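worker-3 :: picked Cysteine hydrolase
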Amino acid sequence: MPQQALLVMDVQEVVVDRFPDADYLPRLEKAIAAARGAGIPVIYVVVGFRPGYPEVSARNKTFRGLVGAAPRLAGDSPATQVHPDVAPAPGETVVTKRRVSAFAGSDLDMVLRAGEIDHLVLTGIATSGVVLSTLRQAADLDFELTVLSDGCLDSDPEVHRVLTEKVFPKQAEVTTVDDWAAAL
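worker-3 :: tokens ->
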């Protein structure tokens, strides 16, 4: 039987604030509670950098604007912490990534393999960012995948719809938080 883990990705206050959806965090809390209740590990993934952003290349269009800016995603700043409404419980793993995919520049693969996890349940912000990038890489690494469509957010509702209805089903099961939680 596959060992699942729920990935909660880029749900940091600085990110959540850019995506106004009052129902998102309560839905995510439900998924987290269901996972914990079923003994499924919850693994948090945050984006963060060292002070001075030495990991960011001037060629990286996504992150190059951080260089020389205030260190809001550097070190242990509050911006690198998981949103307090869905904060990790004691002992839960928090992985720091350096790019869009949860695997890029992190030890996520090592954590998953050490835990003998072979089925990832994906949530996070944004659907077209961390969720898409992580799904693609995880599929190439032969993980079984589930996406909680309402456990993901995107600034463009149409992009979210196309990804969750047309793209993701080619590599993952796509379901809702309620349906996933009920099946546990």
